[in-house]
Every structure is written in structure tokens, then in C-alpha cells.
Amino acid sequence: MDKFIVNIIHRPEMVPEYAEKVTGQGKAEDISRKALLTESLDIFKTQQSIAHKNGLKTTIQMTYASLFNEEAVALAKADHEKYGDEIALTLLGLPCKEFREKYKTKDFCIWMFSMEDKKSIVDDVFGKFYETFGFYPESTGSYYMDADLTNYIKEKYPSVKAAVATCWEEGPKAYHTCNNSWYTLMDGGPWNPWIPSKQNTHAPAANEAEDSGIVAIPHLSRDLLACYDGNGSNFGTHPQNVLRGMIYDSKEWEYPYLYNLIDQYRYLEKFNNGYAYNMMFVGPGWMNKMGRWEAPYELLKKSYEDGCAYYGQLKKEGKLVDMTMSEFADHYRQKKTYTEPECALWRDILYGSDKQLFWYCDPFMRACVNMDQGGAIVDLRPYVSKLYWPIGIGTKHVQDCSYPFLIQEKYRAGYFTHYAGEGTVRSAKVSYNGEEVDLCLCRTKAHFSNENGTRILTLDPVDIEFADLKVTIQSKIKFKEGDSSIDIERKIIKSTNPLAKVEINEYIVACYGTTEYPEDMAPLTLQLLDKKNSVIEECKYEYKCREAYAVNADKALAVIPPIETKVSMECSNADAVGYYKEGYAFSPMFTLGYKAELKLDEAISTKLVMAKTE
User: Fold this and answer.
1) Cα–Cα distance for residue pair 111/288, rounded to 1 Å
2) Among residues 72, 63, 64, 65, which one has the least CA distance to residue 45?
3) Strand 215-218 to strand 277-282: parallel, antiparallel, or no bridges (unpaired)?
């Protein structure tokens, strides 16, 4: 197996987030305050020292403000020479006296500026970096980098080969837990490194023609279960995330969860051909002398020392290799192919439950399977559409750069709805003699295998008990590499009456959007098609609860123009009945599905297919 890879990234933010308000309490805002600049640089030195003490090299992402500070520049040069640290450039940390005087704004998120300003800022920052160091950087980054920004940087500064390009699941959930004040809406992206497409940063490139030219890494490695269920800012391998989440022993100052989280990332090598990755991206604002997150400075420092010590120990044991960002970009391109998926069979390591999620990501989709809901698909993003989604002032999306979903249980209810209608989910219902059970109610566990390029989840069988019949059903979910479809097979492997037939209703309830709020469904069209792709039944969406069924339906299809996506369901059972259902205003979803009757040792096989509209 390959060694576990870690990127340690520091940035000498001269005006770190949050810190001006802390060091300047009771005073008018002044981002050039000497006490602020001095403390920030001291913290950066401390972070660098901690990493080097544990034998770890870092990537120093110089901020725009730090390029005007002779001591920060000298420190970067010295650590590059002595420890092999990479001198890189971040588009975070823009605020400083020089920046505000030129751009007359307090905006600091590069992706939220107009495209004209993005180009100007990039040229200013890269130009100042070249003036300072005599070369252009090989890596850069921000919380998010939109496709237009990335394409401009790669074209103008081709030396750049790596970038911090998104923050996993930093969406409406994080927005709400930050008191509706943190306008970084960017969920729907990969959780581990990927090659972004030229069309959309979140959607990985499927081939060389789509390749943006960089390897992207996420801003922090998150807990793929706790972060999905709650605010990601509390659940990451940045030690101070764990303190912010209050996940530590307040008396002994110990945090086993941090090490368990790092170890779970190590464990992902079992699902990814021996490859496992982790990152830690740290700015000075987290180690403020006045404390953060109800934690004193001493604990903040100790947590970072302990986190680096754990990585350092793994390196000493020959289990870890520390890379700079540019080194990792070269390694990633040698190790991975465009269509190779990223897989994560993730278990709860925080709350003590048996919950298990499976995450799958490739150039065609991102999907999440929830074993607590019988293997239901609870998150689905159609990357196959490579949706062009301009971001920033002057576009339709000033802040929201999330990749739209077809299914999202947190924003569209999932199976468990409060009052009426249905939430988004891909599952199956089992019926017999007027009784019905949804597999979402049947908890199970999954087992992963990779067979000739197809990633397979084999679920533990579940028992369905009716008044006078009991059947046991096993499900298999298959993701074929290089394919934009998901195959699901259900088989009855036990029955108290071998001749009894039960109805299996394979369905997907879906919509589209990026937030909790419904979108206009009027542009949608629902269809049943025959083997010649001729229309059997059709419904232009009008919120009228219409339904259509056909035994000869080769495909149940939804066309969703606002996100340039088609989603369809197909079934290999000859006698299966295909159908669609139109939603209504209170429950604005659509449903596609197939129904078939099965008895012992019989199975139903369906395929969920995503495609880009012509």
C-alpha cells in the first residue's frame, strides 16, 4: 500500500480572520495596527516551528498582506532553504492597507468579486509575489476558486499546478450555525483531491479536454458523517476545529476524536487502491493570545502541537509521507486517472452510533448512500452536466457556488417528512396484501468490493415482516467506472412462502436546487419512453399531481433544463411497470420508478442514469 499523504499548509496572514476585532477591542477598526501584525507573525513562526520540530515540511501560502512585510518574506525564504518548504501564494488574506486603498472595498473572498476585479486582483497579487521572490508560485488557493478564476490563473500563470479550491459541505448548514453571517455557500463538491473541470470547479474533469490544468485539494479534511449531518466547521482535522466543536476532555486537554478522524482518512486506502490523503490548513487567527472557541491560548497551542506530533510519529514509523502542495500535485497526476472514483465507506466515530455512509465521487456524479436508511441514496449531484455556474458580482450567483443536487435529504427532507408529500431520496418500497414497507426504515450495513472497475456495495440482508409473510431482501448497489449510472439489484433470498409474490417499487423522488428553498419546477418535463425512445406519456410540469404508468416503458425520464440535466430510470425486468408522478406546490418533487412482482430467488434490477441535456 502507498504511504498516507499529508499536506501541512500555513499562511502568514498579517490580518487574520476574526483577530482585528479581538486585538482591537474598544478601538476603531485599524487593520494596520502594529499589535495585530506583530502577534500574527509570531503565531505563524510558532506554527512553522511546531511542524518542523516534528519533521514535517509545509507549504507556506503567502498572503497579499504578507508580501509587504519584510520579516514574513525573509522567514519564508529561510524555511524554504532549510526545510524544503514550498513558497506558495494564497488568495486569502487580501485585506490590508494597500488592498483597501486600491479597491475601495471590504470584500475579501476572491470568488465574490466581479470577473474584471478578479483578474486585476490576481495580477496584482501574482505580480507582487514575482517582484518579491523572483518566480511565480506553483500553488495557490482560497476557500473556493470558481472555474473562470482558475482558468484565468492557469492561462496567465502556467506554473500553478495545485490549488485549495473548495471547502467540503460549507453550505446552508454552516451558514445557519454562523448566525446567517458566513456567506460561503459552496457545498456539493469533492471531499478529497480532484482535477477540476474547466466548466465547474466542483465537477471533476472526465478527460484531458476538460482538465483545468490544476490539482485541487479541499480546505480541510472533514468528518464525512458528522460534517454532513451538522456544521462542518466543527468536524475537521484542523485541531482547532475539534476545539470549536467542543469535542475534547476539558480537564485533561485530550482529544481522541482528532486522532480517530485522521485514522479514518488513513483507512480510506482500502477503498481507493491503496491511496489515502489528509490536509491541515492553518492561519494565525486560530492561535490568538486571547483564546478562541472558549479555549485558552495554551490549549490552542497544545492541540496544534499534538496534531503535528501525531503526523510526525506516523512519519517516523514509515506510515506517512509529508508533501508540499506542488509535490502532491505531481504525485496525484501519476497515481490517479481521470475516471478513477474517490470512495469512502465512512462510519460514525463521534456519537457512538452504528451509522454508516458511503460516498462516491467521479467526473459524472457525487452520491451518498445511507445504510441507516436501508442503503437509500440521500445525496446526488449530476456532475455529468458540468454545469457552468459563474460566481461573483455581476452574475446570477453572487455568493452561492454550490453544485446543484437532484437528491439532498438535509434540504429536501429525505424519507422522513413532517406533514405531507415526499422528500428527495432513491429507495424502494415492498408491498404485500395492502401492507407497505419502505427500505428506508430498515437499517443495514455495507461491504465494499471493486470488481473489474465496478465499485460494489453489498448490503446485509434485511427482513420485511407482513401480517402473514416474512421475506428477506438483499441489495447490491453498483457504480461502474467511467459511467454516469447507478445500478441497484434487489433479490428475495428468503421467504416464509416460496410461492408468494411481493411488489417491489423502485423509485427516485428528486428535484433540483442548492438550498432549502424550492425552485420553479415549471421548466421540467416528465416522460415515459419505449425502446425506440418514442414518447408513450408526457407531462409538462404544472404542479397538478398527474401520474402515468406503462408496462412497455423502457425508460422513465425527467428533463431538468435549469441544471442542463436529464435523469432517468430503466429496469431489466420484462414485466415491470414504469411510471412517473408529478408533484404539487406543497411538495414540489417528481417521482420516477418501476414496479415488479417477485417471489423467492427472483430479483429486480434497475439503472439510474444521469446525462447532460443536448
Assistant:
1) 27
2) 72
3) unpaired
Instruction: Name, in order, each residue with C-beta under 8 angstroms of 418's C-beta and a sequence gap of 6 or more.
Output: none
Over the stretch 419-431, which tens digit does the pLDDT of each residue have? 777 899 999 999 9
pLDDT at 23: 47
Partners of residue 449 on adjacent β-strands: 456
- Give CA–CA dist 109/560, Å, rounded: 31
Question: Contact 362/339 with Cβ under 8 angstroms?
Answer: yes
The pTM of this model reads: 0.96
Alpha helices by DSSP H, 33-146 = 34-53, 70-83, 97-103, 115-133
pLDDT digits (tens, 9 = 90+) for 135-171: 999 999 999 999 999 999 999 999 999 999 999 998 8
pLDDT at 471 over 70: yes
Using a 10 angstrom Cβ sphere, with 0-12 exposed, 13-18 middle and 19 or more buried, the burial of residue 459 is buried
pLDDT band at 230 (very low <50, low <70, confident <90, very high): confident
Distances 398 to 110, 112, 532 between C-alpha atoms, Å? 11, 6, 43
Per residue in 109-130, pLDDT tens? 999 999 999 999 999 999 999 9
Neighbours of 351 (CB within 10 A): 9
- Kindly provide the residue ranges of all beta strands, DSSP E only, lying in 11-78, ordered along the sequence: 59-62
Residue type, 392: G
Give the whole-angstrom CA distance, residue 18 versus residue 94.
14
**Which residue has cell 427516485?**
508
**Does 597 score more than 90 pLDDT?**
yes
Integer Cα distance of 117 and 123 in angstroms: 10
DSSP code for 340: P
Rounded-to-integer distance, Cα 552 and Cα 68, Å: 70
| Residues facing 479 on adjacent strands | 455, 486
Distance of alpha carbon 39 from alpha carbon 14, whole angstroms: 9
- What are 386's three cell numbers? 458540468
132-152 burial, b at 16+ Cβ within 10 Å, e below that, comes to bbeebbbbbbbbbbbbbbbbb
Q: Which helix (H) or strand (E) holds 479?
A: strand 470-480
| Class of residue 104 by CB neighbours under 10 A (exposed 0-12, middle 13-18, buried 19+) | exposed
Instruction: Give just the sign of the alpha carbon dihedral 96, 100, 103, 107.
Output: positive
Average pLDDT, the chain: 94
Tell me the pairing of strands 342-347 and 356-362.
antiparallel
Q: How far is CA 159 from the centre of its chain?
A: 27
- 134's CB contacts (< 8 A; 6+ apart) are none
d(CA 584, CA 422): 10
